[in-house]
Amino acid sequence: MTDHRTGSGAEILERVRRLAPRIHCISNAAAASDVANVLLAAGARPILAQGPEETAEIAASCCAAVLNFGTPDGEKMKAVRLAAAAAAAAGIPSVADPVGAGASSWRRRQVLEIMEEIPFSAIHCNYSEALVLLGEDSGFQGVDSAPASLSEKVPAAERTALKYGCPVLLSGAEDVVSDGKRTWVIRGGTGFMSRVTGTGCMLSALAGAFCSVEEDRFSALSAAASFWKACGEWAWKETEAAGGGPGTFRAKLTDAAFKLESWRENIEHTER
After folding, report:
1. Which of helix, strand or coil describes residue 271?
2. Which candidate in 23, 49, 149, 236 could, as Cys together with 190 as Cys, close a disulfide (CB 3.0–4.6 Å)?
3. Using H for helix, E for strand and C for coil, what is the string for 47-89?
4. What are the φ/ψ torsions at residue 122 (nearest 5 degrees)?
5. 199-215 pLDDT, tens digit each
6. Exposure string over 110-129, b if 16+ CB within 10 A, otherwise e
7. For 217-256, what is each residue's pLDDT tens digit?
8. Alpha carbon of 162 to those of 153, 211, 215: distances in Å?
9. Which is nearest to 255 in space by CA: 41, 31, 44, 43?
10. Angle 246-259/217-242 helices, nearest 10 degrees?
């Protein structure tokens, strides 16, 4: 069943804008400024603390923590571990983004150790990253995802959610959101997202902001995904009208996060 809605996602976004939650983000080098700017545009307040000396204290004092494993080194992974543990202890929602989890054996080991040691409230990943989280071989994809059909992505999202005990947003041409029982497929957006680095990191940040004001993390992830697809569609139309390219599109994505108040959602509900 396809459900075209203009209510629930917009209501969650309205709460973000009204409450202006403080979102702690450990981002990656390629996307830090875009992550901060998209959160500001959507109405949240970012803080991008990454030093192990302070990250636990800051994570526990914020409304949500978004922990991105991209461009890692030993100090960053230590900071991620400390922030994740502090958020869990404080009852703060946390979103794990295991960027490029299979890019190297060291990164795979670090990601799996953290994910298995510390409970997260939600996970955002692509198909290849989900395979790594499931302990399977994803092949070398760098930070990109291997091609996968919807019939492959849906069970991967469901299995990952069941393994880690939290909702999973598996993003791609179609986004799949699952908590192991409920599974929604979210369509729309634009393929031009792949021409700009960091769009997945920005989605993780929005997911954190939405989780900070919505206790049903499954609904929060679904709303964030549908909102970001709507932002992509709006940004692409504006970019085409301006005769622009990737640079214009990148700026228009931030504009979209600021301007959109309601949108037409394309969600297929599959009850398990």
Report:
1. strand
2. 236
3. ECCCCCCCHHHHHHHCCEEEEECCCCCHHHHHHHHHHHHHHHH
4. -160, 160
5. 999 999 999 999 999 99
6. bbeebbeebebbbbbbbbbb
7. 999 999 999 999 999 999 999 999 999 999 999 999 999 9
8. 14, 19, 19
9. 41
10. 130
Strands 94-97, 45-47: parallel, antiparallel or unpaired by DSSP? unpaired
Terminal CA-CA length for the chain: 14
Task: Give the chain's domain count.
Answer: 1
Sheet of 122-125, strands arranged across: 2-3, 267-271, 182-186, 175-178, 168-170, 122-125, 94-97, 64-68, 22-26, 45-47
Report the predicted TM-score, pTM, of the whole model to 2 decimal places.
0.94
Residues 32/74, Cβ–Cβ less than 8 Å: no
For the chain, the helix, strand and coil percentages under 3-state DSSP, each to the nearest 5: 50, 15, 35
Structural domain boundaries, residue 67: 2-271
Q: In this structure, how many other beta carbons lie within 10 angstroms of the beta carbon of residue 137?
A: 9
Alpha carbons within 13 angstroms on the beta-carbon side of residue 1 total 5
Q: What is the CATH number of the domain that holds 108?
A: 3.40.1190.20
Residue 94's identity, in one-letter code, is: S
